[in-house]
Write a structure and sequence with these properties.
Shape: elongated
Number of helices: 9
Number of domains: 1
Radius of gyration: 23 Å
Structural class: mainly alpha
Strand content: 5-15%
Largest sheet: 3 strands, antiparallel
Strand order of the largest sheet: 3-4-5
Order of helices and strands: HEEHHEEEHHHHHH
Length: 219
Protein backbone atom coordinates (compact mmCIF):
# COMPACT_ATOMS: atom_id res chain seq x y z
CA UNK A 1 0.00 0.00 0.00
CA UNK A 2 2.79 2.40 0.87
CA UNK A 3 4.63 1.59 -2.33
CA UNK A 4 1.47 2.38 -4.28
CA UNK A 5 1.14 5.73 -2.49
CA UNK A 6 4.76 6.56 -3.23
CA UNK A 7 4.30 5.83 -6.92
CA UNK A 8 1.13 7.93 -6.97
CA UNK A 9 2.85 10.87 -5.27
CA UNK A 10 5.70 10.69 -7.76
CA UNK A 11 3.31 10.74 -10.73
CA UNK A 12 1.31 13.70 -9.40
CA UNK A 13 3.16 16.97 -9.85
CA UNK A 14 2.67 19.87 -7.41
CA UNK A 15 0.10 22.47 -8.45
CA UNK A 16 0.55 26.13 -7.56
CA UNK A 17 -2.29 28.65 -7.68
CA UNK A 18 -2.06 32.38 -8.34
CA UNK A 19 -4.85 34.85 -9.15
CA UNK A 20 -7.34 32.06 -9.78
CA UNK A 21 -5.06 30.15 -12.17
CA UNK A 22 -3.31 26.82 -11.65
CA UNK A 23 0.33 26.24 -12.58
CA UNK A 24 1.96 22.86 -13.13
CA UNK A 25 5.28 22.38 -14.94
CA UNK A 26 7.25 19.38 -16.07
CA UNK A 27 10.81 19.05 -14.72
CA UNK A 28 12.06 18.97 -18.32
CA UNK A 29 10.54 22.38 -19.15
CA UNK A 30 12.20 23.92 -16.09
CA UNK A 31 15.55 22.40 -17.10
CA UNK A 32 15.08 23.98 -20.54
CA UNK A 33 14.68 27.37 -18.87
CA UNK A 34 17.68 26.97 -16.54
CA UNK A 35 20.08 25.45 -19.09
CA UNK A 36 18.62 26.52 -22.42
CA UNK A 37 18.19 30.24 -21.69
CA UNK A 38 21.94 30.96 -21.13
CA UNK A 39 22.85 28.91 -24.22
CA UNK A 40 20.27 30.72 -26.35
CA UNK A 41 21.49 34.08 -25.00
CA UNK A 42 25.00 33.26 -26.17
CA UNK A 43 23.91 32.27 -29.69
CA UNK A 44 21.63 35.32 -30.06
CA UNK A 45 24.50 37.59 -28.98
CA UNK A 46 26.83 35.88 -31.44
CA UNK A 47 24.27 36.18 -34.25
CA UNK A 48 23.58 39.87 -33.64
CA UNK A 49 27.33 40.52 -33.65
CA UNK A 50 27.71 39.15 -37.18
CA UNK A 51 28.24 41.65 -39.98
CA UNK A 52 25.14 40.40 -41.79
CA UNK A 53 23.27 42.43 -39.17
CA UNK A 54 25.19 45.59 -40.04
CA UNK A 55 21.87 47.22 -40.86
CA UNK A 56 21.06 47.23 -37.12
CA UNK A 57 24.11 49.39 -36.47
CA UNK A 58 23.15 51.74 -39.31
CA UNK A 59 19.55 51.99 -38.11
CA UNK A 60 20.62 52.74 -34.54
CA UNK A 61 23.12 55.38 -35.68
CA UNK A 62 20.51 57.10 -37.87
CA UNK A 63 17.92 57.13 -35.10
CA UNK A 64 20.41 58.62 -32.63
CA UNK A 65 21.41 61.28 -35.16
CA UNK A 66 17.74 62.09 -35.74
CA UNK A 67 17.22 62.73 -32.00
CA UNK A 68 20.40 64.82 -31.80
CA UNK A 69 19.32 66.96 -34.72
CA UNK A 70 15.59 67.28 -34.07
CA UNK A 71 15.74 67.83 -30.29
CA UNK A 72 19.24 69.22 -29.61
CA UNK A 73 19.95 70.83 -33.02
CA UNK A 74 23.53 69.48 -33.20
CA UNK A 75 23.64 68.95 -36.98
CA UNK A 76 25.12 65.49 -36.51
CA UNK A 77 25.90 63.23 -39.45
CA UNK A 78 26.05 59.47 -39.84
CA UNK A 79 29.10 58.13 -41.66
CA UNK A 80 28.57 54.73 -43.27
CA UNK A 81 31.71 52.98 -44.48
CA UNK A 82 31.72 50.71 -47.54
CA UNK A 83 33.66 48.11 -45.55
CA UNK A 84 31.34 46.42 -43.08
CA UNK A 85 34.33 45.71 -40.87
CA UNK A 86 34.05 49.35 -39.74
CA UNK A 87 31.23 50.43 -37.47
CA UNK A 88 29.00 53.36 -38.50
CA UNK A 89 30.11 56.66 -36.98
CA UNK A 90 28.13 59.63 -35.71
CA UNK A 91 30.00 62.89 -36.34
CA UNK A 92 29.06 66.09 -34.49
CA UNK A 93 30.64 69.24 -35.98
CA UNK A 94 32.07 72.00 -33.77
CA UNK A 95 32.61 69.49 -30.98
CA UNK A 96 34.97 70.79 -28.24
CA UNK A 97 36.59 67.35 -27.96
CA UNK A 98 36.38 64.37 -30.30
CA UNK A 99 33.22 64.67 -32.36
CA UNK A 100 33.27 61.12 -33.78
CA UNK A 101 31.47 58.25 -32.05
CA UNK A 102 31.45 54.70 -33.39
CA UNK A 103 28.25 52.69 -32.89
CA UNK A 104 29.65 49.35 -31.73
CA UNK A 105 28.09 46.05 -30.65
CA UNK A 106 27.62 47.33 -27.09
CA UNK A 107 25.96 50.51 -28.37
CA UNK A 108 23.04 48.63 -29.93
CA UNK A 109 22.42 46.84 -26.59
CA UNK A 110 23.15 43.42 -28.07
CA UNK A 111 23.78 41.92 -24.62
CA UNK A 112 20.43 43.17 -23.31
CA UNK A 113 18.47 41.94 -26.33
CA UNK A 114 20.20 38.56 -26.09
CA UNK A 115 19.27 38.27 -22.42
CA UNK A 116 15.63 39.16 -23.01
CA UNK A 117 15.21 36.89 -26.04
CA UNK A 118 16.94 33.98 -24.31
CA UNK A 119 14.88 34.19 -21.13
CA UNK A 120 11.48 34.91 -22.70
CA UNK A 121 11.87 32.23 -25.38
CA UNK A 122 12.60 29.54 -22.78
CA UNK A 123 9.83 30.40 -20.31
CA UNK A 124 7.85 27.15 -19.84
CA UNK A 125 4.11 26.89 -20.25
CA UNK A 126 1.91 25.61 -17.45
CA UNK A 127 -0.03 22.44 -18.21
CA UNK A 128 -3.26 24.11 -17.14
CA UNK A 129 -5.48 24.57 -20.26
CA UNK A 130 -6.50 28.10 -19.22
CA UNK A 131 -2.86 29.21 -19.18
CA UNK A 132 -1.89 27.31 -22.31
CA UNK A 133 -4.67 28.91 -24.35
CA UNK A 134 -3.04 32.35 -24.64
CA UNK A 135 0.52 31.47 -23.58
CA UNK A 136 2.16 31.86 -27.01
CA UNK A 137 0.40 35.18 -27.60
CA UNK A 138 1.46 36.51 -24.19
CA UNK A 139 5.04 35.41 -24.75
CA UNK A 140 5.17 37.09 -28.18
CA UNK A 141 3.60 40.28 -26.80
CA UNK A 142 6.12 40.45 -23.92
CA UNK A 143 8.99 39.86 -26.35
CA UNK A 144 7.90 42.63 -28.74
CA UNK A 145 7.15 45.14 -25.96
CA UNK A 146 10.42 44.46 -24.12
CA UNK A 147 12.61 44.74 -27.21
CA UNK A 148 10.85 47.91 -28.39
CA UNK A 149 11.11 49.68 -25.03
CA UNK A 150 14.75 48.69 -24.49
CA UNK A 151 15.64 49.90 -27.98
CA UNK A 152 13.96 53.27 -27.39
CA UNK A 153 15.63 53.63 -23.99
CA UNK A 154 18.99 52.78 -25.53
CA UNK A 155 18.89 55.29 -28.38
CA UNK A 156 17.79 58.08 -26.02
CA UNK A 157 20.56 57.06 -23.61
CA UNK A 158 23.20 57.38 -26.31
CA UNK A 159 21.71 60.61 -27.64
CA UNK A 160 21.82 62.15 -24.16
CA UNK A 161 25.35 60.82 -23.69
CA UNK A 162 26.57 62.55 -26.85
CA UNK A 163 24.67 65.74 -26.05
CA UNK A 164 26.13 66.03 -22.53
CA UNK A 165 29.60 65.19 -23.79
CA UNK A 166 29.23 67.89 -26.45
CA UNK A 167 28.47 70.33 -23.62
CA UNK A 168 31.64 69.49 -21.73
CA UNK A 169 30.68 66.67 -19.35
CA UNK A 170 33.37 63.93 -19.37
CA UNK A 171 32.37 60.96 -21.50
CA UNK A 172 33.15 58.22 -18.95
CA UNK A 173 31.28 59.95 -16.14
CA UNK A 174 28.06 60.49 -18.04
CA UNK A 175 28.38 57.09 -19.74
CA UNK A 176 28.38 55.23 -16.42
CA UNK A 177 25.63 57.40 -14.93
CA UNK A 178 23.26 56.97 -17.86
CA UNK A 179 24.07 53.27 -18.13
CA UNK A 180 23.06 52.58 -14.54
CA UNK A 181 19.98 54.79 -14.80
CA UNK A 182 18.66 53.08 -17.94
CA UNK A 183 19.61 49.65 -16.54
CA UNK A 184 17.47 50.27 -13.45
CA UNK A 185 14.55 51.59 -15.53
CA UNK A 186 14.83 48.67 -17.93
CA UNK A 187 15.01 46.07 -15.14
CA UNK A 188 11.97 47.52 -13.35
CA UNK A 189 9.99 47.68 -16.58
CA UNK A 190 10.99 44.13 -17.54
CA UNK A 191 9.96 42.81 -14.12
CA UNK A 192 6.61 44.61 -14.34
CA UNK A 193 5.87 43.27 -17.83
CA UNK A 194 6.80 39.72 -16.85
CA UNK A 195 4.74 39.85 -13.67
CA UNK A 196 1.70 41.18 -15.52
CA UNK A 197 1.71 39.10 -18.71
CA UNK A 198 4.16 36.24 -18.21
CA UNK A 199 4.20 35.24 -14.52
CA UNK A 200 5.26 31.72 -15.55
CA UNK A 201 8.90 32.89 -15.42
CA UNK A 202 8.73 33.53 -11.66
CA UNK A 203 6.38 30.66 -10.82
CA UNK A 204 8.40 28.09 -12.76
CA UNK A 205 11.59 29.05 -10.90
CA UNK A 206 9.80 28.81 -7.55
CA UNK A 207 8.26 25.51 -8.73
CA UNK A 208 11.67 23.87 -8.26
CA UNK A 209 11.18 23.98 -4.48
CA UNK A 210 7.92 21.95 -4.30
CA UNK A 211 9.32 19.51 -6.88
CA UNK A 212 12.37 18.83 -4.72
CA UNK A 213 10.25 18.66 -1.57
CA UNK A 214 7.90 16.15 -3.19
CA UNK A 215 10.83 14.05 -4.35
CA UNK A 216 12.26 13.94 -0.84
CA UNK A 217 8.91 12.95 0.70
CA UNK A 218 8.38 10.15 -1.81
CA UNK A 219 11.82 8.59 -1.15
Amino acid sequence: MREHEKEKSKSQKPILKLNGRSYEFSPFSIMVLIIGAPILCFFVYFFLSLRINYWLYELTAKQIAFILNSIFNLNSQVIIYPEQSKFPTIFIPNHPFNGSYSITTECIATHVFSLFIGIISCVPSSKDPLNMKDFKWRKLMVLIISISVIHILNIFRIALLLFFNFNGIPFEFIHQSLFFLTAIIGALFFTFVLHKWLPEIFISIYYIYPLISQRKRSN
